[in-house]
Amino acid sequence: MAIVEFRDYTWKYSRTKEPALKNINLKVEEGTFVGIIGPNGAGKTTLAYSINGLIPNQYYGVRQGAVYVLDKEVKQYRSDELTKLVGMVFSDPEAQFTAMTVEDELVFGMENLGMGVPEIRERLDWVVPLTKIGPLVEKPPYEVSGGQKARVALAAVLAMTPRIMVLDEPTSMLDPISRITLFEVLGELKHKQSNTIIVVEHSLEHLIPLADRMVLLYNGEIVLDDETEPFFEQMETILEHDAYPPEALRFFYEIGQKGYYQGPLPFTVEEAAQKLEALWQGGE
Amino acid sequence: MAERHPYIEVRDLVYRYPDGTLALRGISLDIYDGDFIALIGQNGSGKTTLAKCLNGLFKPTSGDVIVEGLNTKNTSITNIAKRAGYVFQNPDHQLFNNNVWDEIAYGPRNLQLPGGEVQARVEETAQVVGLDEKYFTEHPFFLPKGLRQRVAIASILALQPKAIIVDEPTTGQDIKQSLDIMDFLLDLHREQGHIIIIITHDMPIVAQYAKRVIALGLGEILVDGPTRDVFAQPDVLAKTFVAPPQITRLAQRTQHLGFDPHTLTVSEMMEQFQRLIPGQWLGQ
User: Fold this and answer.
1) Domains, chain A, ordered by start
2) ipTM
3) What pTM was estimated for this model as a whole?
4) Touching check for A171 and chain B: CB below 8 Å?
């Protein structure tokens, strides 16, 4: 069953002339990990906000078509119902902090969902080590470093364990190691839980090995929407629309173009290395 | 050729924040005319603190920073800033005027330049950064991020500093925008002779643009050298919590096939591939 569905959905902010999203049709099945890519201005954040209800509840604009979460239109939900279902991690995590300490920040969301103390404790014990924020729990969230803020923001959303998690450029403030940590956490979630995870991201190296499916947006429209492997077989379309696949993948695409390689494109350095070794040994 | 004098000299620089945090633990380095430097390292390694010491915003707790012969300890910020300009990571922390023209004119006015010269500098720098005159009357905050970044750079350039330090120029930009900004900095470097220092987590960008890499870790310099040499030492880099670009890692992982561990770009990898590919493929 589709847990999120866009049906002929168009959204135009009142302050702009052109719609930010045009006639979007997109179905996300429960439990899938979806990567949303595309250049700035393509409509990625608008798409994310349309799932968690920020659009149309907090923004002025004109809407056609509809977005459904489960079997109900987003705008039909009470905001607390929708918060339980859809958790959002923003690209600027400060935008989401409200509490005086990191721990209160995590507790706040759970209390709002009506959880009791034992359950809150149990979830803290799970989420704090998972996101490696143990040393930070007593600190004010706005005083920790950029990379730590992103992990706190993720932890706060994870603690509520929403069925759908939407992350809007979660790594844009992070150093490479914090990026890896964040995607490790997402990978663990993907494998151990059945959450639906939708990630808007520019940095594809860590996203691609986890994604079941990729969507390329450009100028408010869906240009490509496919399972990850066939998605990258349409490399020309991807490159034409200012999306840049990871270097190892691009390298294999190029040697494929020259006739040296046929087969699935590698998503990691290790996969790429093994494919090169196989080539050297005279083919697979 | 005469002996090379550094444009900026940093000697045993220690910086301690008022709250006691020791951010820089004895940094010494020379920055020369012709340098294009990437300052890399984990979040919290001291990169931004060092940058703010270079332009005199922060005065050393001990040690010295000497910019074109002037010690930042006893020189006004204005006097240092016209030699070493610092562009903030988040342009919104830097921009504060009500329109773009005033924003760019602020520095030159502060230098108490005559009105005609102020006007000339605003128009000239706007042109250099590719900012159309139609934006002069706009409020900086209502421009898209890419343009705000250009305004921030223009406002620093208007002071005509020899050295330009840009803190995370590509954060929040998509790849095409990142390349545009970096190409622009490269032009400033090549055509106008500016020393460029970027702070970044984006290793493909470092590989493509920087001639020299300085990696910081916990307030100390871990490695300082030509980009190609630094990326060829993954074990040293690991201490900085930074990984080389993906294509460099692939070349290092396949060194036994003949690939050069100093490889920096996909096209370099491609050249080697065509040279190295075993005989049975040559008929292709």
Assistant:
1) 2-245 (3.40.50.300), 246-284 (no CATH)
2) 0.85
3) 0.81
4) no
